């Protein structure tokens, strides 16, 4: 098992522009069960291609995006904290991880605003 930020990936064999975790990765989190399992698939940060020159999805926020996507896909903490609080925790942890990984403040702020504004749809799907 690896420890965040060491997430081991390979190109997904059947989905264009997606990647697959190849070894379980433990992530320090206030959300219970934050171990990204081998086989989990990600497209990193979901950013419109037009904005990639300013905010590349495969750039410094990639690891934070993988952990954030896993928290959303698994709805981590929802049973313990409720939907709103669990989602807020996932979003705040995403922002903090971005900063720890060297994402510029302005990029993190934009990404955080977008996950707060539009993340609810993904949390519920």
Automatic annotation (TrEMBL):
What Pfam families does the entry give?
Answer: DUF1353
Return the protein name.
DUF1353 domain-containing protein
Instruction: Record the organism.
Output: Dyadobacter beijingensis
Question: Mind telling me which InterPro entries this protein's record contains?
Answer: Phage_CGC-2007_Cje0229 (IPR010767)
Highest taxon in the source lineage:
Bacteria
């Amino acid at each position: 098992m690896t420890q965040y930020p060491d997430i081991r990936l390979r190109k997904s064999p059947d989905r264009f522009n997606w990647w697959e975790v190849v070894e379980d990765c433990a992530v320090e989190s206030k959300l219970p069960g934050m171990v990204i399992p081998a086989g989990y698939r990600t497209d990193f940060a979901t950013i419109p291609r037009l904005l990639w020159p300013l905010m590349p999805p495969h750039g410094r926020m990639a690891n934070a995006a993988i952990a954030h996507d896993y928290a959303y896909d698994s709805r981590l903490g929802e049973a313990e904290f409720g939907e709103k609080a669990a989602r807020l925790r996932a979003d705040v942890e995403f922002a903090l991880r971005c900063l720890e990984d060297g994402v510029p403040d302005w990029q993190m702020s934009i990404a955080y605003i977008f996950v707060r504004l539009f993340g609810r749809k993904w949390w519920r799907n």
